[in-house]
Amino acid sequence: MKIGIVCYPTYGGSGVLATELGMALARKGYDVHFITSHLPVKLNFINPNLHFHEVFMEDYPLFQYQPYELALSSKLVQVVEKYSLDILHVHYAIPHAYAAYMAKQMLKQKGIDIPIVTTLHGTDITLVGSHPVYKAAVEFSINNSDVVTTVSESLRSDTLRLFNIYNKIEVIYNFIDFEHQKEWDDDECVRETLVSKDEKIISHISNLRPVKRILDVIQVFDKIQKKIPSKLLLVGEGPDKAKADLLVKKLGIKDKVIFLGNSDEVRKILCFTDLFLLPSETESFGLVALEAMAARTPVISSNTGGLPEVNLHGKTGFLSDVGDVDDMAKNAIYILEDDKRLEAFKDNAYAYAQKFSIENILPKYEKLYQLCMH
Ligand code: GMT
Question: From ligand 1's centre to the CA of 342, what distance in Å?
Fold first, then answer.
């Protein structure tokens, strides 16, 4: 089967998931074609079944903004025709589902009927997609996809609540590829380069957008470090970085907070992390929480969106109301103050992450593709 994948090629969770999915499908023998604006950051071409088609843009003095949807839908038509693709799987509704619908209509006129699978990831529904400026087009694209999936039950209900949907929506959880994602050897996982022997390592990884509530991360850490010797690793770049830096200085904890910027070695960082913080305002799934758990790291998170489906309260970590930094810090200290307890939470986190292993999730996508073809 020949599958076209459309996604954002950047560090966001939807792009990472789509790239991992494409690489896993290629390993299973599918012919996978990525059609994106740039080379996806996580894509490596060790498999001859993987192909990349760049969506080029043509500038023109009249354009204030270049019409990416138009370029993408034209590129989809070309690639589907040239490589006889069987299916298009688009990740993130805006503008991918809309561009795919347009491509489908153009291809119909050429006698080609290509099924469209749309996977909704979160902010394309909750933060951006339901805004009046985009809502009609997003609703239309969801209703006119051949198959629609969401990455959690919570995102499915949000989609049904925020839009007038008459199409069926299936939940297929995000996944972790345990075998292919281990980017370190155990003897490389050396924490002593960052902390002293008695210090714990706490991490947060995100694109530092307001939705991630990075200031809560710092406040929770400030409370933790007053009780437990520890350091905070902040991984990622984004609009709230300056605010975060300012708060760190104000709290006088500059020597305990390490800003690492964007990193390709997320899992290496997680291998020596003791506790992961994710206090987001909204989170349809929280792929990074799952990545932390897969690296044996318990999670302190907010209880918003799909997070309760990933992080089990009192077992793999704890959940608190959005903004309740006191409760988050109390729970973090409870886990960290007793080494035996910390080990138990680490074991639970790792064990529960298995539910989301690629072996469990990939067949669900394959089944959907098969259904679409008949
Ligand atoms: O929020 C992000 O960090 C990026 C965003 C994206 O564009 O990829 O993430 C969304 O999709 C991820 C993959 O399915 C989910 O794990 C994230 O929870 C979701 N983000 C939000 O809902 C805020």
Answer: 28
Closest ligand 1 atom number to CA of residue 206:
3
Give ligand 1 pocket residues (Cβ under 6 A).
12-14, 17, 92, 121-123, 151, 174, 206-207, 211, 282-287
Please indicate whether the domains covering 2-175+357-372 and 179-355 agree at the CATH topology level: yes
pLDDT digits (tens, 9 = 90+) for 38-49: 999 888 878 999
Of 83, 80, 55, 85, which is closest to residue 70 (Cα–Cα)?
55
Residue whose CB lies within 8 A of the most ligand 1 atoms, among 284, 288, 301, for a mutation test: 284
Domain map of the chain by residue range?
A: 2-175+357-372, 179-355
CA distance 364 to 353: 17
CATH of 2-175+357-372, one of 3.90.79.10, 3.40.50.2000, 3.20.20.140, 3.30.230.10: 3.40.50.2000
Peptide bond into 67 cis (omega under 30): no
* Topology (CATH level 3) of domain 179-355: Rossmann fold (3.40.50)
Q: Please determine, for residue 184, whether its predicted confidence score (pLDDT) is greater than 80.
A: no
User: Across the beta sheet with 50-54, what order do the strands follow?
Assistant: 50-54, 31-36, 2-6, 87-91, 116-120, 147-150, 169-171
Q: Which atom of ligand 1 is nearest to the CA of 122?
A: 22
186-204, pLDDT tens digit by residue? 667 778 878 888 999 999 9
